From TrEMBL:
It comes from the Bacteria. This is ABM domain-containing protein. InterPro entries: ABM_predict, Dimeric_a/b-barrel. Keywords: Membrane, Transmembrane, Transmembrane helix. It comes from Streptomyces viridochromogenes (strain DSM 40736 / JCM 4977 / BCRC 1201 / Tue 494). The chain crosses the membrane at residues 117-140, 146-165. Coiled coil: none annotated.
Length: 192
C-alpha cells in the first residue's frame, strides 16, 4: 500500500425532489468503487439543504485516477443525468492534509421564519393570558387599570420566559431548525 493515500470529495447540486435518488446512486456507486484496487473507504454526506458530497479514499494517486478515468465510473456519472450535477471536486493527499482542509468553522443555522416564531410565541403567550384573565382579573376589578396590566405582564412574562418558552422551543426544535436535523442524523453518515 502506498504511504500517501488520496481522499477525493465531489460536491453535487441535487435537483429538487431527487435527494433519495441521489442518496441511492451515491451508495451504489461507492459499492462499485469498493471493488477497485486500492479503495480504502467512502461515504455520502449532506451539507445543508442542497449540497451533497461523495467522499472516497484510495491508497494512492494512481488507483484514484484509474477509477475516475475508468469506463465504469463514466457509466455511473451518466446515470446521474437529471438527478444532480457536479459542483466541485477536491483531491487531498494524505490524512493530515484532509483534516487540515476541513477545519473551517461551520455556518450558524439560519433563523426560523417569522411565521414559525409567531406561532411558537402565540402558543406560549395566549394560554397564560387567557388563564390570568379568567381566574385572577375578576378578583382585581377594583384595582387601578395600570396596576392590573402591570401585574398581568409581570406574571405572564415570568411564566413564558422561564417555564413555557424553553419547553416549546425543545418541542418544536425539529420544525424550527430542519437544516440542523438534516446534519445531525436524518441522513445518517455511513462508511463502506
Amino acid at each position: 500500500m502506498a504511504s500517501n493515500p488520496v481522499t477525493v470529495t465531489v460536491a453535487y447540486r441535487v435537483m429538487p425532489g431527487r435527494a433519495a435518488d441521489f442518496h441511492s446512486w451515491g451508495w451504489a456507486m461507492l459499492g462499485a468503487t469498493a471493488r477497485q484496487p486500492g479503495f480504502l473507504g467512502g461515504g455520502v454526506l449532506v451539507d445543508g439543504e442542497a449540497e451533497w458530497h461523495v467522499v472516497y479514499r484510495f491508497a494512492g494517486e494512481g488507483p484514484a485516477l484509474a477509477w475516475e478515468q475508468s469506463p465504469s465510473r463514466a457509466q455511473w456519472d451518466a446515470r446521474l443525468e437529471g438527478v444532480a450535477r457536479e459542483a466541485e471536486r477536491r483531491r487531498v493527499p494524505g490524512a493530515r492534509a484532509w483534516f487540515d482542509a476541513q477545519t473551517l468553522t461551520p455556518k450558524p443555522p439560519a433563523p426560523p421564519s417569522k411565521w414559525k416564531l409567531w406561532f411558537v410565541n402565540m402558543s406560549a403567550v395566549f394560554p397564560p393570558v387567557l388563564l390570568f384573565n379568567l381566574t385572577v382579573l375578576p378578583y382585581l376589578g377594583d384595582l387601578n387599570a395600570l396596576l392590573r396590566t402591570l401585574l398581568l405582564c409581570l406574571c405572564v412574562t415570568a411564566l413564558v420566559t422561564w417555564i413555557l418558552m424553553p419547553r416549546l422551543q425543545r418541542f418544536f426544535r425539529k420544525w424550527l431548525y430542519p437544516s440542523l436535523q438534516a446534519l445531525r442524523g436524518r441522513h445518517k453518515r455511513r462508511a463502506i
